[in-house]
Design goal:
The chain is of the alpha/beta class. The chain has a domain of 221 residues: Rossmann fold (3-Layer(aba) Sandwich). Helices cover 30% and strands 21% of the residues. The protein has eleven helices and 13 strands. α3 crosses α4, α3 runs parallel beside α6 and α4 packs across α6. The longest helix has 18 residues. It is globular. The protein starts with 10 loop residues before the first strand and ends in a 6-residue tail after the last helix. Bound molecules: adenosine-5'-triphosphate and magnesium ion (MG). Adenosine-5'-triphosphate binds next to β1, β2 and α1.
């Protein structure tokens, strides 16, 4: 949902490449990734384990650790290259303008401090609030994330809360500084399905209420569809396809995206009529990526001589249907297009019939 008033994306990754430097040498984790997130927008980042989703989020937070480094491209926040910011400017942005919710809530909570104490630190540290103001804001946020009896939660220690309650506390903590951008890295993976549904609903409603932009990382396309406006699909360190939820869910174009849809259960589908089909093989290690398209060895549409040609750019060609290059204009696909006969579009319960433009768009070569 680009903000047509604003010409500057809130977050822009511009041909970003990230590597870890390990004993065996450089391990490229993310290669040449470009994306834009507009103010108020919610973008999902989906892909198999190890494809580089968290690495992107850590890079935005500047938490790549000693082994990780930006080796190419830029991260721009509100138009400013984050590499050009001083340590003090970065510190002000982190936590206040950008906050992150991690997969494991306990890793973000201090086990030896009460919830009230740790929540109050945020407005004291970032907004210079008094202890009374800070505690009152913390209490309000606990109520906002639908935690019953906020006073009891304020006095509790993290181990006295359930996993779902801990994750709500962490979301409240992230929202306390009223960030413009919230990075959510698999925020519900450790939760059971009913608690997960509650947390996902909460994230979607808080987004509406506070206008926070979200980068929502998940393996789960169903969750992404509930929370996000657009989705970028990653494979082996690259974005292979991006578009609005409606477009990508109605007509996934990249064979990897189609493979992902083939292995998720759909709420309305009959298991025997539509058996789940896993994607064969495994993601190759970054050090063993094949020539040409990285998905080639697992792809049913693989064409020798084309998909493994170096001119396939040693990258999987990205399919960008609606990642706008400006708020008002959608980017054109960068390659000639062809529809693969072996990859029919399957009907989805969320498939939009109200998008004739999507139906008439030819498929890109990949
Ligand atoms: N600190 C590190 N040192 C070396 N390699 C790392 C480090 N962190 C991640 N990696 C490697 O970088 C690649 C991307 O990892 P990343 O954690 O970003 O994947 P992911 O998509 O978030 O996976 P998951 O869905 O399992 O969380 C993987 O090959 C991983 O092994
Ligand atoms: Mg991860």
């Amino acid at each position: 949902m680009p903000d047509t008033e604003s010409a500057i994306p809130l977050l822009e990754l511009d041909r970003l490449s990230l590597s870890y430097f390990v004993r065996a040498g450089e391990m490229p984790a993310v290669t040449n990734v470009s994306l834009k997130l507009w103010p108020g927008e919610s973008l999902g980042l989906v892909g198999e384990s190890g494809c580089g989703k968290s690495t992107i989020a850590y890079a935005v937070m500047n938490y790549l650790g000693r082994a990780g480094r930006i080796v190419g491209g830029r991260i721009l926040f509100e138009g400013r290259d984050m590499a050009s910011l001083s340590a003090e400017e970065l510190r002000r942005i982190r936590g206040a303008r950008i906050a992150m919710v991690y997969q494991e809530p306990m890793s973000a909570l201090n086990p030896s401090m009460s919830i009230g104490e740790q929540l109050a630190e945020v407005p004291i540290y970032h907004a210079g609030a008094s202890m009374t103001e800070a505690r009152s804001r913390a209490r309000q946020l606990l109520a906002d994330v639908n935690l019953p009896d906020p006073d009891r939660i304020m006095a509790a220690y993290p181990h006295q809360l359930s996993g779902g309650q801990q994750q709500r506390v962490v979301i409240a903590m992230a929202l306390l500084a009223n960030p413009a951008l919230l990075l959510l890295d698999e925020p519900t993976t450790g939760l059971d399905v009913t608690v997960e549904a509650g947390v996902v609903e909460l994230i979607a409603s808080l987004r509406q209420r506070f206008g926070t932009s979200l980068l929502y990382i998940s393996h789960n396309l169903g969750l992404i569809a509930q929370v996000c406006d657009r989705v970028a699909v990653m494979y082996s360190g690259q974005i292979v396809e991006s578009g609005t939820i409606e477009e990508v869910f109605a007509r996934p174009r990249h064979p990897y995206t189609r493979g992902l849809f083939g292995c998720i259960p759909l709420p309305t589908a009959d298991k025997t009529a539509r058996p789940l089909t896993p994607i064969r093989g495994q993601v190759t290690l970054p050090s063993e990526r094949p020539r040409g398209c990285y998905f080639g060895p697992r792809c049913d549409s693989f064409i020798a001589g084309r998909c493994d040609a170096t001119s396939a750019s040693t990258t999987t060609s990205a399919i960008a249907r609606s990642a706008p290059s400006s708020p008002a204009r959608a980017a054109a696909p960068s390659r000639p297009m062809r529809r693969s006969a072996s990859a029919p579009v399957r009907a989805r319960p969320w498939r939009s019939s109200a998008n004739p433009a999507a139906a008439s768009r030819p498929l890109p070569r990949c």
